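EI: anyone free to look at a 258-residue chain?
SC: sure, send it
EI:
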Amino acid sequence: MKITITADDYGWSPDSVEATSTCLLDGSINNASLMTGAPAFEQALAFAKTHPQFCYGIHLTLAGRGQLKPAASRSKVGTLLNSEGQLGSLRRFRAFALLGQIDPQQIETEISAQIALARDAGILISYVDSHHHVHKLPIVTEALNRVLPKFGIDRVRCVQNFYIKPAYSKPTYWLGKFQDRKLRQRWKTTDWFYMPATLLETDWQENLLQRLIPNTLEIGAHPGTVENWRKTEFDDIRTFSQLARTARHDLVSWVDVI
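SC: here you go
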């Protein structure tokens, strides 16, 4: 089976950048998704510039916790911002989108600016995913359909559809297949996507290997060493990559998985 392991939040903090870079270098992960509005983005960008052999994507960020800034001029993406001029919360984004108070053109503007920021720095962008998985929301999916062809990007993360245990409390567990259909109609993606952070799962590695279903799988991770949950993922993903190779699975980048 082909498996690709992606580190999200590349740029979140100096610690998470260092942990993700370590995993790239030791082969524990195959891809890193750049977070352009995060505090340590420049640190992540510097690593990517000097290590072009690795696969990079954009971790599209349209909502955060008040510490993430837009890539576009604030005057052009005002409906995405809170009163402090930062990207607003996920709750705000969802509510405003539902009420028609998010300008779709501003979503396109911000997505374009984030991709261009990395591309213009010389980074080859091979795929996109998103912070809080907002790209599964119809207003964002439609924006991707208009923006990504301009950048020659045709790979997009699918909606989580692989679970070790039922995620009854998560809307995606029930609605994901409908959201996923729209993405699959347009973009190349893996057959399956699993993210331990959805339920803060630990000791998932053996269970996942026992339940693997052909043909392609992406695993999303958030390596770090300071925050406890990121440290757990840092350790778990390194263990899993070793187990997967021992079991003769192919660990490949986004470019090679599909």
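EI: The chain has a mean pLDDT of 96.
SC: 👍
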